[in-house]
UniProtKB/TrEMBL annotation:
<dbReference type="InterPro" id="IPR011990">
    <property type="entry name" value="TPR-like_helical_dom_sf"/>
</dbReference>
<protein>
    <submittedName>
        <fullName>RagB/SusD family nutrient uptake outer membrane protein</fullName>
    </submittedName>
</protein>
<keyword id="KW-0472">Membrane</keyword>
<dbReference type="Pfam" id="PF07980">
    <property type="entry name" value="SusD_RagB"/>
</dbReference>
<comment type="similarity">
    <text>Belongs to the SusD family.</text>
</comment>
<feature type="domain" description="RagB/SusD">
    <location>
        <begin position="312"/>
        <end position="547"/>
    </location>
</feature>
<feature type="signal peptide">
    <location>
        <begin position="1"/>
        <end position="23"/>
    </location>
</feature>
<dbReference type="InterPro" id="IPR033985">
    <property type="entry name" value="SusD-like_N"/>
</dbReference>
<dbReference type="GO" id="GO:0009279">
    <property type="term" value="C:cell outer membrane"/>
</dbReference>
<feature type="domain" description="SusD-like N-terminal">
    <location>
        <begin position="93"/>
        <end position="218"/>
    </location>
</feature>
<keyword id="KW-0998">Cell outer membrane</keyword>
<dbReference type="Pfam" id="PF14322">
    <property type="entry name" value="SusD-like_3"/>
</dbReference>
<dbReference type="InterPro" id="IPR012944">
    <property type="entry name" value="SusD_RagB_dom"/>
</dbReference>
<keyword id="KW-0732">Signal</keyword>
Length: 548
């Protein structure tokens, strides 16, 4: 929570008042003369508040900041050569100045304050008796959603359910348990009051609230409750697994029934969240979904290759650990459904004998015999060229590329924005939640049954039997491996490892590049310096242990 106050022009900012900046107090002219007190007392005006409360999710989902905080710095991703936040990925002098953490702290506390304001004002909004509990359910879901990110990222930090309307110069340190109590209260209200479907795509539904509540129960070790809530979602016929895992990632299939909760990005990029000095001065500097940029290896300087729309704009931020690539058996179609290994010649300038469409680059997790390589016209980057014998990275420019988020529908080859929606919770995760809960309750057969539903879907033709697991194979580490195979890159991995108490162990075991600087205190992130500078009770609201 950023506690200095800035009075902004316009209705949305008037509802926030604090939390938008850590600079000194400013006064700006509001030419409309409208205030939150006048606008949010009409149903139409209150709709703008609720809609605005959703938009802050876009600061995390589909954005580089959110990928770095939620996915890297784990057992499955390490730094590519273009990494911007190596301090998050490899814990290299991670401190309070980290810009990704600063941005997310600011935006998510602003989101919480807007939700608090909406919940406190809803009685005077003039909503119908039917609509009122739905809108409150949305706001309560969103408040729980934002607080979960906050408490898991930073630990025991500032908590309030009251709207901030003036200068506040102190912050509290609230125990995690207290924050989770509110999360559960809000989510139970959402489950009880949200409809099964919503007329507007991307709005939270009862099923989405149930799925997120199941995740929260699992996080807090409430396994019986997690199982019951997951089973309620699995019984919902509005949701259905895709028959083919790879089909999940087609741009033509963004409205898949497997997606339970999504962050919706518009095909009209102008109305997403790109910062604009006239219309959206508080937007993101890159806007829309950027996931398509971040996992791509550097291919466009290789012989026979040039940058194009289909292969994407390679920011080369993150590369898979060798451990992640080895998790997929040859029977598992999720590897080919998640990663790309072959780049075909697309340049007018090519090596002699190489035609358009021929293989130009092959990056593989396997070892290729030198004698075979010598007979090929294309470049090969195999296991021993990408990784050292101990699993550390040898080449952080070329590697199998996560292809889930690629977007060949972009208008130009350098377009950084994508209209791809972000799948925040998929039905597959609910199966894995149910499996983990059953395992912890001692029901290994039931746990294996849930996992085998996903492994049956993932099996290559004729390999279904080989992909099945027995109850004795179900352990917490196996489930974490399965979650990696199914959910790699989907902005959940750091939270999975933290909630299971496996973060430090698995980084040290499986991600040697990330482990070099890892310390025990890295299970929470540093509080942004902007926040520490803003408070006056500095002796009470201090930096998280281990950070400066």
């Amino acid at each position: 929570m950023c506690l200095s106050i800035v009075k902004k022009t316009g209705l949305l900012a008037l509802s926030l008042l604090t939390l938008l900046s850590c600079k000194d107090t400013l006064e700006e002219f509001n030419p409309s003369g409208l205030t939150a007190e006048t606008v949010y007392t009409t149903p139409e005006g209150f709709e703008t508040l609720v809609n605005a409360a959703y938009t802050y999710q876009r600061w995390w989902y589909g954005k580089e900041e959110g990928y770095n905080i939620a996915e890297t710095g784990t057992d499955i991703w390490t730094s590519g050569s273009g990494e911007a936040y190596r301090d998050l990925t490899q814990y290299l002098n991670l401190q309070s100045s980290n810009a990704a953490l600063t941005n997310e702290w600011r935006e998510f506390y602003a989101a919480v304050n807007l939700c608090n304001g909406g919940i406190s004002r809803i009685d005077k909004a003039g909503l119908s008796a039917t609509l009122r509990p739905i809108r409150e359910g949305e706001l309560r879901f969103l408040r729980a959603f934002y607080y979960w990110h906050i408490v898991e990222t930073w630990g025991n930090v500032h908590f309030t359910t009251q709207e901030t309307n003036g200068i506040v110069s102190t912050a509290n340190r609230t125990p995690t348990e207290t924050i989770y109590n509110q999360i559960f209260e809000d989510l139970k209200f959402a489950v009880a009051n949200l409809p099964v479907t919503q007329p507007r795509y991307g709005k939270v539904t009862r099923g989405a609230a149930q799925a997120f509540l199941a995740r929260m129960y699992l996080t807090r070790g409430m396994n019986k409750e997690a199982l019951e809530m997951a089973q309620a979602v699995l019984a919902n016929t509005n949701y259905k697994l895709e028959a083919n895992y790879a089909d999940l990632w087609k741009m033509s299939n963004l409205k898949t029934k497997e997606a339970i909760y999504v962050v919706d990005y518009s095909t009209n990029l102008a109305i997403n969240d790109l910062a604009n000095s006239t219309f959206n001065p508080y937007g993101h500097n890159r806007g829309s979904n950027n996931g398509h940029l971040l996992f791509l290896m550097k291919y466009d300087d290789r012989p026979g290759m040039t940058r194009d729309i289909a292969y994407g704009r390679p920011f080369n931020r993150y590369m898979p650990t060798r451990f992640l690539l080895d998790l997929y058996s040859d029977d598992d179609a999720r590897y080919e459904g998640s990663f790309m290994e072959v780049w075909r010649a697309n340049s007018t300038s090519r090596p002699a004998g190489m035609n358009l469409g021929d293989t130009a680059v092959y990056c593989t997790r396997k070892e290729i015999p030198d004698a075979f390589e010598a007979t090929r016209k294309y470049q090969i980057y195999d296991r021993s060229k990408i990784y050292n014998a101990n699993g550390t990275v040898k080449d952080n420019l070329r590697y199998p590329t996560l292809s889930k988020f690629m977007d060949p529908t972009r208008a130009s080859l350098n377009e950084a924005q994508s209209a791809r929606d972000v799948f925040v919770i998929r039905l597959a995760e609910v199966y894995l939640i149910a499996a983990e809960a059953q395992m912890k309750l001692g029901n290994l057969q039931a746990a294996a049954d849930y996992i085998n539903v996903l492994r049956t879907r993932a099996a290559k033709a004729g390999k279904t039997a080989a992909m099945q697991i027995a109850p004795a194979q179900v352990t917490l580490d196996f489930i974490l491996d399965e979650r990696a195979r199914e959910l790699a890159g989907e902005q959940i991995r750091w939270f999975d490892l933290k909630r299971t108490g496996k973060l430090l162990e698995r980084i040290r075991t499986y991600a040697p590049d990330n482990a070099v600087n890892l310390q025990d205190y890295h299970v929470v992130r540093p509080i942004p310096q902007t926040q520490l500078d803003a408070v006056t009770n500095k002796s009470e609201f201090t930096q998280n242990q281990g950070y400066q």
